[in-house]
Amino acid sequence: YNGDGLGGVLGVIIYLLLSPILMFTIPNEVKQSYERDGRTSPVSAIWGLWFLLPIIGNIIWFVKVQHALNDFWRSKGAAA
User: Fold this and answer.
1) Which of 18, 40, 50, 68 has CB 3.0 to 4.6 Å from 61, enough for a Cys bridge?
2) What's the CA gap between 15 and 25, in Å, rounded?
């Protein structure tokens, strides 16, 4: 969307070798997108700690981060 953040070869390497790191970087990138728009983000890198709580933590992480990302794109005019 804006050319910042992980992507390409680096993103694939981190995903394959160090996937738990993505639990912190993805919400952080969502937060940065909100901040670039001058809005307060509902998620931050600290949300990656939900990863430590088996099963239910991953579900909470996914739902909250995905909801924040969906809201961001809706604010840009994406169809709901």
Assistant:
1) 50
2) 11
Q: Over 90: is that where the pLDDT of 77 sits?
A: no
Distance CA 62, CA 39 (A): 21
Half-sphere CA count of 55, side-chain side, radius 13 A: 0
Virtual CA dihedral for 2, 30, 5, 23, nearest 10 degrees? Answer: -160
Question: Does residue 62 come out as left (phi exceeding 0), alpha (psi in the -120 to 50 range) or beta?
Answer: alpha
Largest CA distance in the chain: 35
User: Residue 12, CB half-sphere, CA atoms under 13 Å: how many?
Assistant: 2
Q: Percent helix, strand and coil across the chain, each rounded to 5?
A: 70, 0, 30
Tokens 């809201």 label which residue? 71
Q: Write down the pLDDT at residue 41.
A: 94
The pTM of this model reads: 0.80
